[in-house]
Structures are given as structure tokens and as C-alpha cells.
Amino acid sequence: MTACAHETISVVVPAIDEAEEIEAALTSVGSDPSVDSIVVDGGSRDDTAERARACGARVLTGPRGRALQMNRGAQDATGSILLFLHADTRLPRGWPDEVRRAIRAGAVGGRFDVVLRGRHPLLRVVAAGMNLRSRLSGISTGDQAIFVRREVFERMGGFEPIALMEDVALTRRLKREGRLAPLRVKVDTSGRRWEAHGPIRTILLMYALRLAYAVGVPPDRIARWYHDR
């Protein structure tokens, strides 16, 4: 398929108990008529689904698990480009043009730079490190709003159905499909994880988990370590 300026984009948002964040995330998607939003609820106990519908998103239910939820949303998506957005992340103004421009230039997918939303003074440093690491390695995390040509995503079989590191696994495979676009325009994502457990401790934990994944530790075991800590 030849990319053009009017290619449709489907934004897929996996969510569980994100009533406080979902409206801002969906509002940031904007009102471009060639962009649609799909929220895949993994069993929320709050009114995430109702708030998403009020924002005009299509709401699906799916099995709990970010990879499974995103694959569920992609199955029902109609866009020729898929963008996977965390419920606590907000897209910048003009983002559809940025994505289409990257695809039109020949990228198979890409991601955004990120800024972390919160009060801790180290969050700016953490975000800068994330952006630099991603730019050098070509590996992205879900916080960076990964996007991909639909045909490529389907050919790859979507996200691996694993409990953690599904974003890292996807972008590793995407690198073999073609060029990825590291967009410098920034998404705004919540720094709540770093603030809750401390930026340094969280950084060390995440690097340890990625190292474990790189050397072949099963994702289910890594997920247990992550949640235990």
C-alpha cells in the first residue's frame, strides 16, 4: 500500500481502571475525521468504559493483559496505520501529520519522544535518558506511543502474547521489517510509576528487567518480579 497524506489511523488504547486518565488521552487524539479511537477494556471496576464512550471512542472488552488487549483492538481497527496509546499518555497537537509524514517517507513504524508529567525534579532527566536510549537502540516502549503500518503489524502477527516486554519485543521485530522513525515531537505521559517508587529505583529495576529479558528469562517470570517489586 502506498502511503498518502490521508491514510486512516486507528488509535488503540488498552485500559484497566483508568477513569482518571482516559478522557485526557482520548481528547488528545483530536477530531481528525480520518482518525478513530478504540479502547479495549480489560475488566475495569470503575467507569473507564463509560467515560471512553462519552469521548466518542469505540469500546471493546478483552482479556486482561496489555498485549492481548492491543491485539484485540487491532483486529477491529480499520485504519491503515495503527497507533498504540497508553491510557495515561497524551498525544501532541498535529500528531497525525507527523505520523503520516514518517510513513510517507518510507518508515514501517516509529514512536515519539516523551516527557514525563509529574513533580519530581528527576523526571526530566529520566525522560531525556529514555529518548536517547530509544534513539540509539531503535527499541521503544509503550509510553512513547508506538505506531506501525497495519499491513506490517499483521504480517508480523501482532504483539507477542506475553505478560511484559511486549513493546520491546515488537520494536525489535519491527527493526527487521524496515526503518523506524524516532519522532522528536513529544507525547506527555504520567510519571506516576517513577514518583511512586522513586526515579532511581525504578530506572534500575527496568534496566534489570530488560537485561533479564535480553538473556532469555521468560516474560511471565519477569512480570512476577516486576509486580512483586
Name its key features:
single chain; eight-stranded mixed β-sheet; alpha/beta
Structural overview:
- The chain is α/β, with parallel strands linked by helices.
- It has one domain: Spore Coat Polysaccharide Biosynthesis Protein SpsA, Chain A (Alpha-Beta Complex), CATH 3.90.550.
- It has helices at 22-29, 48-54, 66-76, 95-104, 123-137, 150-156, 166-177, 192-197, 199-214, 219-228; strands at residues 9-15, 35-41, 58-61, 81-84, 89-90, 109-117, 147-149, 180-190.
- It has an eight-stranded mixed beta sheet, sandwiched between helices.
- Helix 1 (22-29) links the parallel strand 1 (9-15) and strand 2 (35-41).
- It is globular.
- The N and C termini lie far apart (45 Å).
- The mean pLDDT is 90.
